[in-house]
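[User] Could I get a sequence and structure tokens?

[Assistant]
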Amino acid sequence: MRIVQPYGYNIGDSTLFIGNEKAAIIDTGMEYCSPRLVAEVKEELGDRPLDYILLSHSHYDHVCGLPAIRHAWPEVKVCAHPHAAKILAKESVREFMMRMSKKNYEEVDPDHDVVGYPLSDYKVDVELTEGMKIDLGDICFRVIETPGHTKCCISFYDEINQILFASESTGITNVTDPYSVEPTYVSSYVQSLGSVEKLKPFPVKMILQSHRVMGTLIEPEHYFDRVESYYHLTCDIILSLYKNGVDQDQLLKIYSDIFAHRAEGQPYFAFMVNAKAAIKTVIREYEEGLIK
């Protein structure tokens, strides 16, 4: 077994798992980074094929490298949650992802350009649901549905080696302080907390995440407690301001000022989009009586 993190946008945007029988990559990064990504994966695999692309969810910064990998390995199977498959089948979504990818490279890496693969390449071959297995030989992933960041988030648990690839619903370590956690709930705060609780019981020796260098410095047995505390903190701040009559535009400004450090290591526009979505989600679920 080998685990490698080739280049996507940040190191950690893609994670390559090379088993003694098959190989899989989780997430594919940005399209404009895909030539380098493909070259690094080829170097790691040598003459071996890439058997699976496993998508943790359907956001553009996780799937835009998919066409390049499909062209490099035409027999590869793209696997994702059924909701992700439905989303990626929409022409409007594919076009939106390309616009977001272009906006991203213009902000963070203007010397690069998009490659321009056909939008039809954004398709899912295998729909993954709870409990399904992806067997690579000495690595065997169990699919765990963990919604909250999106409806289609999936985590992958290797029962043989006790390695957990935790979806973005369950937070990511802070780029400036690797001992703290960035809340990443977008579609549902309540579901994100449920996903954290769902992953807690698994015996884990290593936790892997999107957007971060391999592993987290937080001990696996403490990681999800840390996630919960940061999730509760941000929720409390949002609701405290909202209950005191602060409108959502002003709330966004205050929230983005408090957590400005979280914008480091990602495009600022993406940070603001997620911050706005998190605020709306918490307020909506509070009004629905889901958050007490």
